[in-house]
């Protein structure tokens, strides 16, 4: 089973930069950068929840499981 975080695509669709999302959420820019990379190996659920609330999306929109 593979899990993909589609944050990069969502930010592109919404026209929001990684730096802007970091400012909006209070998360470190390096955290956002990591979540936008192809090699996300672990993430806190609280972080995903904060991102979803900030971007007004559902967790199902952010994560894809294959």
Number of domains: 1
CATH class, named Mainly Alpha
Write down the CATH topology. Answer: 434 Repressor (Amino-terminal Domain)
Major β-sheet, in short? 2 strands, antiparallel
Low-confidence runs: none
Could you state the CATH homologous superfamily? lambda repressor-like DNA-binding domains
Arithmetic mean of pLDDT: 94
Structural class: mainly alpha
CATH-defined architecture:
Orthogonal Bundle
For this structure, the quaternary state is single chain
GO molecular function, one term: DNA binding
Pfam families: HTH_26 (PF13443)
Domain HTH cro/C1-type: 7-62
Protein name: Putative transcriptional regulator
Folded structure, characterized:
By secondary structure, the protein is mostly helical. It has one domain: Orthogonal Bundle (434 Repressor (Amino-terminal Domain)). 59% of the residues lie in helices and 9% in strands. The protein is built from five helices and two strands, in the order E-H-H-H-H-H-E. The protein has helices at 7-14, 18-25, 29-36, 45-55, 59-62; strands at 3-5, 63-65. The chain is globular, with a radius of gyration of 11 Å. It starts with a strand and ends with a strand.
């Amino acid at each position: 089973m593979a899990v993909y975080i589609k944050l990069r695509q969502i930010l592109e669709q919404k026209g929001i930069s990684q730096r802007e999302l970091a400012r909006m959420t209070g998360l470190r820019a390096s955290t956002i950068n990591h979540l936008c990379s192809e090699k996300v190996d672990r993430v806190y659920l609280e972080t995903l929840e904060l991102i979803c609330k900030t971007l007004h999306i559902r967790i199902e929109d952010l994560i894809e499981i294959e």
